[in-house]
Design goal:
With about 180 residues, the chain is mainly beta. About 10% of the residues lie in helices and about 40% in strands. It has 3 helices and 12 strands. The chain has a 7-stranded antiparallel beta sheet. Strands 1-11-12 form a 3-stranded antiparallel beta sheet, with no helix packed on it. The structure holds flavin mononucleotide.
């Protein structure tokens, strides 16, 4: 399969944007922008994301047992860019909040999930990280709308006026 064609096809699936943040055992702050975040399980509460094995910080991510998943708001494109560049100081200019489980978190993220690493799986050129959610924060007063990523570009949701729910026969099976 043509890798570019495959990548472009995957880009037709819109996602949100998160920054996953952690402190390594040696005390270094790490953070990475990701669109591969998704829900896994309600009981126990599990989420996942995947990290490219060639990321500069890959070894650091393998060493952490806890991390926070910060869902970005639509006004945080710059934060997304800041954590998507290989840089020694991704946290420059940002205050660091400390979560209940001791993980560093971003200020002003709409929702933050504090996680303990639950499992890691082989995912080809990526590694899949499954996190067990230990605490969750919703910053209602800063929450606007989430940043959206689609076809390789940042997007914004249109007005909620067109937000229809699925019909009853297809919704909410097993919590969906
Ligand atoms: C919107 C967006 C989504 C991204 N999603 C992922 C992802 O899910 N997994 C990943 O490994 N890299 C992803 N990246 C790329 C990383 O953020 C980027 O390679 C980062 O520089 C890696 O950090 P490091 O080089 O310090 O290790 C994404 C980048 C952007 C802009």
């Amino acid at each position: 399969m043509d890798p570019l064609k495959f990548r472009n096809a995957l880009g037709k699936f819109p996602t949100g944007v998160v920054v996953v943040t952690a402190r390594t055992p040696s005390g270094e702050l790490v953070g990475m922008t990701m669109s591969s975040f998704n829900s896994v399980s309600l009981e126990p509460p599990l989420i996942l994301f995947s990290i490219h094995r060639r990321a500069l910080s890959f070894a650091a991510w393998q060493s952490v047992s806890r991390y926070a998943v910060n869902i970005l708001n639509e006004d945080q494109e710059q934060v997304s860019n800041q954590f998507a560049r290989p840089s020694a100081n991704k946290w420059e200019g940002l205050a660091t909040l400390i979560g209940k489980n001791g993980t560093p978190m971003l200020p002003n993220a709409g929702v933050v999930f504090e996680c303990e690493n639950y499992a890691r799986y082989d995912g080809g050129d990526h590694e899949i990280f499954v996190g067990r959610v230990e605490a969750l924060h919703e910053h209602a007063f800063t929450y606007q709308r989430p940043l959206v990523f689609f076809e390789g570009r940042y997007r914004q949701l249109a007005s909620s006026a067109s937000a229809h729910t699925p019909p009853p026969e297809v919704e909410l099976l097993h919590g969906w």
